[in-house]
Amino acid sequence: MKTIIIGAGMAGLSAAKNLSQKGHEVIILDKGRGVGGRMSTRTIEQGKADHGAQYFSVKSSEFQALINQLQAENITTKWQLAQRENVRYIGAKGMNTIPKKLAENLNIHLNEKVVLIKKNEVKTESGNSYSFDNLIITIPIPQVIELFDNSEIIFSKNDEKIIDKIEYAPCIAVMAVLKSPTEIPTGGIILENQTVAWIADNFQKGITSVPTVTLHASAEFSKKYLEDDLQLVAIEILTSVRQWIKPKNLVSWQVHRWRYSNAIKRFEEPFYQLENQPIYLSGDGFGIGNVEGAFLSGYFCSKNLL
Ligand SMILES: Cc1cc2nc3c(=O)[nH]c(=O)nc-3n(C[C@H](O)[C@H](O)[C@H](O)COP(=O)(O)OP(=O)(O)OC[C@H]3O[C@@H](n4cnc5c(N)ncnc54)[C@H](O)[C@@H]3O)c2cc1C
Q1: Do 242 and 227 fall within a single domain?
Q2: Are residues 274 and 142 in the same domain?
Q3: How many angstroms does the Cα of residue 184 sit away from the middle of ligand 1?
Q4: Which of 2, 95, 290, 294 is 20 to 30 A from 198, alpha carbon to alpha carbon?
Q5: Residue 84: its pLDDT value, please?
Q6: pTM for the model
Q7: From the CA of 262, how far away is ligand 1's center (Å)?
Q8: Tens of pLDDT, residues 190-207
Q9: How remote is the CA of residue 216 from the centroid of ligand 1, in Å?
Q10: CATH number of the domain to which 193 belongs
C-alpha cells in the first residue's frame, strides 16, 4: 500500500513515522523549503526566534512517549511560564528541531506544492505526479477547500458538514533582534486585551545567543489588520509593547502573516475519512488541536491504515 501525505508539519510527520516504522511505503510532499510547518524557527541576522508555535503541553501517553525520547536526546526541554502552573515543553534549540528530528529517515519531497488531486494521483506545481492507495491531507482546512476546488474530487454533503465546523485564528507575528535582553519573566508573557497577546524572549528561552523577541498580535487585532501593509502594522505592534521593548533597544525586525495559527473550532475526532474515498483529513483542525493535537491526529489517522 502506498500512502501520500500532504504536509510535513507535526501531523504529517507523525503519520509518516508510524506508517514507515510498520513497513508501509510513504511519501510526504510539502510546499515549503523545510519541514515543520507552523513549528517554525527563523534566523534574523545573528538572532533566532520561534515564530509559530511557542511551547506545548503534553497530556496523552502517545505524545508523552515521543517527548520522553526527545528529552533523552536533549531536543526538548521542560519550560514553565510565570503565569501558568503546568509545566510546558519547548525545543531546546528552537521549536523546529522537533519536526526535524521526526523527519529523519522519512521520504520527504520539499518544494512540492500539491495543486491537483485526481482519483488515485496528486499533481504538484512543478509538474510531478504521485500515485497513491491512500492520501492523508494535513494542511489547514481552508487550503484543503481551495485545493479541492481545483481538483477532480468533490465533497459529499456529510464531508462539507464536517469541514465547515473547522476554523482557525489568524496571527500577525513580529520578530525583533535587540541590543540587550528584556526583563520578561521566565522568557514569556501573556497579555490580556491588548494589541499583543504574547511576547517571548528567545534569549531567555535559550535558543539564541543574541537577544531576539517574538510578538504575537491578538487574534482580534490580527483579523482586523491581516490584509493591511504589514510593515506599518508591525510598527503599531512594536509601539504597543514599548514598556517591555524600548524602541532604542531595537536592532531590526521582521513581520509574518499567519493566516491560520491555532484551530479555534475543531472536528472532535482526531481525523476524518472522506465518504467513499481513500482520502483522510488530519492536522490540528481535528481532535484537541495545537502541537499535541496535530501529532495525535497524524498518529491515529495512520493507525487506522495499519
Ligand atoms: C503564530 C502561532 C502560534 C502558535 N502557538 C502555539 C503554541 O504556543 N502551542 C501550541 O501547541 N500550538 C501553537 N500553535 C499551533 C501549532 O503550531 C499547530 O497546531 C501545529 O503546528 C499544526 O501542525 P499541522 O501538522 O496540523 O499543520 P502545519 O504545521 O501547518 O503543517 C502543514 C504543512 O502543509 C504544507 N502545505 C500546505 N499546503 C500545501 C500544499 N498545497 N502542498 C504541499 N504542502 C502544503 C505546509 O507547508 C506545512 O508544512 C501556533 C501556531 C501559530 C501559527
Answers
A1: yes
A2: yes
A3: 26
A4: 294
A5: 87
A6: 0.97
A7: 8
A8: 999 999 999 999 999 999
A9: 15
A10: 3.90.660.10
Q: Which structural domain range is residue 22 located in?
A: 2-39+96-167+265-305
Mark whether 158 and 204 lie in a shared domain.
no
Query: What confidence tier does 82 reach under pLDDT thresholds 50, 70, 90?
Result: confident
From the centroid of its chain, how far is CA 67?
17
Does residue 284's CB lie within 6 angstroms of at least one atom of ligand 1?
yes
Nearest CA to ligand 1 atom 19: 290
Number of domains in the chain: 2
Same-domain status, 102 and 30:
yes
In a domain, 74, yes or no: no
**pLDDT (tens digit, 9 = 90+) per residue, 232-245?**
999 999 999 999 99
